[in-house]
Amino acid sequence: MATINTRLLVQSQNLFTNSFTIRSDKAVRLTGEVNKTIKSITTTSSGSATTVLTVTDYGADKDVYVFLKNRSTATGKFLYVIIGSQQIARLSPGQYMSLPWRTESSDDLKVYGNDSNGIKLEILAGTSS
User: Fold this and answer.
1) What do you get for the CA distance between the two ends of the chain, in Å?
2) What is the pLDDT, as a whole number, of residue 4?
3) What is the rounded distance in angstroms from the CA atom of residue 70 to the CA atom of residue 52?
4) Within a domain: residue 43?
5) Rounded Cα gap, residues 127 and 32, in angstroms
6) Is residue 84 part of a domain?
7) Where are any strands of DSSP class E within the chain?
8) What is the pLDDT of residues 40-65, one digit of tens each?
9) Alpha carbons within 13 A on the beta-carbon side of 83
10) Residues in CB range of 70: below 8 A, 6 or more apart
11) Distance of alpha carbon 47 from alpha carbon 104, whole angstroms
């Protein structure tokens, strides 16, 4: 078993009249197999997006912790993340996201980009308790 510690820190000195800080720490305990890989995403449309995680990989109705990162450093190379039929994110070069993914019927996690030569996507996924 593994534990992933996350910290979200949002702060500003000049956004509002008074400065503010919001911090949230979370330990995510992964109870099953953890997979980490890097894939080159060459598909360029949502209709032919590359499936990177499937419901059958983990079983239905499971909680999966997912980390995705666009490893490109070139300006303008975007990756688009889809769960089921809904686009949920656009990752610019160097951007990353983590999310709890609840595996349901046909809601596979897919990604496509805007460069048919390929954009590298880093993926880490594991079931959580």
Assistant:
1) 10
2) 84
3) 13
4) yes
5) 5
6) yes
7) 2-12, 20-41, 50-53, 63-70, 79-83, 86-91, 96-102, 109-113, 119-128
8) 999 999 889 999 999 998 888 889 99
9) 13
10) 77, 78, 79, 91, 92, 93, 94, 95, 96, 119, 120, 121
11) 20
Identify residue 33 by its one-letter amino acid code: E
What does DSSP assign to residue 18?
S
56 within 8 A of 105, measured Cβ to Cβ: no
What the block records as the tokens of 68 is 């995705």
Count of domains forming the chain: 1
Location of structure tokens 């510690």? 5
Supply the pTM of this predicted model: 0.86
* Residues of the domain holding 69: 30-128
For the stretch 63-97, pLDDT in tens is 999 999 999 999 999 999 999 889 999 999 999 99
